Amino acid sequence: MADERARIGMVDDHELTIRGLRDSLADHPDLDFVASAPTVAELFDATTDLDLVILDLRLRDGSSPVANVEAIRARGLDVLVLTSGEDPFLVRSAARAGVLGVVRKSQPIDAVVDAVRSAARGEMVPTIDWAAAIDGDPDLAAVDLSPQHRRLLTLYAAGETATRVASTMGISPETVNDYLGRIRLKYADAGRPAPTKTDLYKRALEDGWLPFPRRRRKS
């Protein structure tokens, strides 16, 4: 990509952050800030002709970082996370979903631009914050769930009954209970037991399968 401009898209719902990055990249002829949007779907409604998507982890629509990363990667695009970094669980989940790196918004602008340039070339952008979020908590061992198990967990942990989950997924209630037993066993084997529905909800939050509840604004 030495003789081409890398086409950059951004998913963020903070206008100040978007303007700041757009203006900063404008000073670099090898980087072309093409489009921004508050959600992944809206970005792709605007364009898919991109080389890299810069993603904020906590969006107002409450979407899961894992789902957002997977949706972007399904388009054959790389992802660089640009976040305030206040939630290590979200950083962990994004890292496991296959992003090229996680950069804090508080970093100097030159460092952010260098990270964007490296990611646009398809290079990993390792940072201390990223490594600490993934490896710093031994009690949060990874649990590998199949797509079917993951979907069931997100439905059930979000509050659906086993009967409703069975209807939504087109499987029997007995299969739902069997899958829940397997999911609980995997978490128990990882040292993260989830015997109750509330525990499963916590695990789904920790691993990024469910979005964290939005913070209420003070009136």
Automatic annotation (TrEMBL):
Protein name (record): DNA-binding NarL/FixJ family response regulator
Keywords in alphabetical order: DNA-binding, Phosphoprotein
GO molecular function per UniProt: DNA binding
InterPro entries assigned to the protein according to its UniProt record, in alphabetical order: CheY-like_superfamily, NreC/VraR/RcsB-like_REC, Sig_transdc_resp-reg_C-effctor, Sig_transdc_resp-reg_receiver, Tscrpt_reg_LuxR_C, WalR-like, WH-like_DNA-bd_sf
Lineage: Bacteria, Bacillati, Actinomycetota, Actinomycetes, Mycobacteriales
Secretion signal span: none
Species, as recorded: Rhodococcoides corynebacterioides
Keyword Mitochondrion (UniProt): no
Domain Response regulatory span(s) in chain numbering: 7-120
The UniProt record lists the keyword Cell membrane: no
Residue numbers of 4-aspartylphosphate PTMs: D56
Database matches in PROSITE patterns: HTH_LUXR_1, RESPONSE_REGULATORY
Domain of life, per lineage: Bacteria
